[in-house]
Amino acid sequence: MDHALVRNFCIVAHIDHGKSTLADRILEVCGAITDREAVDQVLDSMDLERERGITIKASAVHLQYQADDGQTYHLNLIDTPGHVDFSYEVSRSLKACEGALLLVDASQGVEAQTVANAYLAIDSDLDIIPVVNKIDIKNVERSFALGQLHEMFGFSEEEVLHASARTGEGVHEILEAVVARVRPPEGSAEAPLRALIFDSEYNSYRGVIAYVRVMDGRIRKGDTVRMMATGRQFEVDEVGVLAPAMTPTEELVAGAVGYLCAGIKDARECRVGDTITSARHPAAEPLPGYREPKAMVFAGLYPTESAEFASLKDALDKLALNDAALHYEAETSGALGFGFRCGFLGLLHMEIVQERLEREYDMDLVATAPSVVYRVYLKNGQRVEVENPAHYPDEGSIERAEEPYIRATIMCPEEAVGPCMQLSQARRAVFKDMVHTAGGRVTLTYSIPLAEILLEYYDQLKSVSRGYASLDYEFDGYKPAKLAKVNLMINYESVDALAFLTHREFAEVRARTIVDRLKQLLPRQLFEIRIQAAIGGRVIAAGRISQLRKNVIAKCYGGDITRKRKLLEKQKAGKKRMKQVGSVDVPQEAFMSLLKI
Questions:
Q1: N or C: which end of the chain has fewer CB within 10 A?
Q2: Which residues lie across from 478 on neighbouring strands?
Q3: For the structural domain made of 484-596, what CATH number should be given?
Q4: Distance (Å, rounded) from C-alpha 386 to C-alpha 404?
Q5: How many percent of the chain have pLDDT more than 90?
Q6: 369 DSSP assignment
Q7: Domain boundaries in the chain?
């Protein structure tokens, strides 16, 4: 394969700006799929992606394109997610490319995640081709998006391409621009092998399948390769490209993007970001890997049956191969038994991981309410990081506590500025900046406690802006906080899985709301249920669910009153005994109800 005829590029954009649809049209133009095979979102292989209409996983595909200059070019396209929770997938994809198509919806213009992904591509030194998509929509002013692209990134009008991914208009021009404006890959096929693992997945029959970008050297079937992080060696069973199905080839040479099977059975021996080299002629040093993703949201995942704990561990091991941003470690709960404390990049990421475990690995799970990591400084000089509210130290031993903040960038129309600011300030946000951009759009910058955006902030932001606001955020360090740990007790027994940490100012309001919600969610029993929320030894909210009663005196018509009293006393004694030995099952809705407040 001639290096000069290879182009590696990806598509980056805000969510719902048409990345997957454009990828479909590119596959059709290059002849990678026939009319019979054509479906919407070809590269979105998961049912979840098709149902929700979003890209969750970056997907690579190898294409051959006959250009206007008569040459046949080998194109490696990577379609990337657009939601802020999956920006780590985007950053990994950029490492495997030399160019990027920056897609902007003609009607929506530049949005928050467009800006974030554009700067990721600029930082990775990629050749960027701006594209205004959805030009087939009637009465859309393209000048709106063009003005924003010029003002924010400095692109001239001549540089910007115009296309409609839905109709296919302008797709040929995009491919010609990729050939002309994206540089071919560097690296020598004769140098020692260095291949970067940018993704992987587990197959029951073939073991771990690694998706690689070969930077130097070549890989053939039968070669012995070494993982530079672990030192383990494997014999290559098969190499090939994704076109879009797995297609075996003789070799992968420098500049190629493809897959590798080597009978790797242990998921931990093939890490995303690791470098594969030759066992015979190893490279001197590995490729620079990826920045470790920082988990922002933590929640407990527990199997409904304790015997399923080992199956859940196995499922998490395999899912972590396909989702390098997922972190987990074993923990126990008095209420829920053995499970895992998992770290996620955001609420959507948490929701997707839980759904994938339930669908792909047939797990029946209970998830606790999400929380963030707090830093607590003790009076003895120690600093502890608290992910689980149940592990929060006693009030008397704490000197001070800090909570994580994010730097949020909100882009909205001018008429939605007031409601967006009002919503943010109600969430303890600190105003930083406001910039007016082309097309009547405003960019607001806030520093917001991460815990505050867990509680339906994004949904409410969309609601107050009638769907026009977009949000992007990044970690902004830790700041002092007045925290309170609220314990939930059911029949005077603390339920550690329902404990939560909150700002002291909101503790009583949240506690009352949760107690009221639990009164609705917990099923009535044959004995009375007491629900209490307490900070330390002080009860700040309480409620009760009355018992179900059988009418034991229904059969007593006439006769002496003592007969009725005797039956009622017997029932009372039975209720008392039942209350001592009875237990209350807390349904999954109770844990998730903490999200809805």
A1: N
A2: 404
A3: 3.30.70.2570
A4: 12
A5: 0
A6: P
A7: 3-181, 194-278, 297-367, 374-481, 484-596
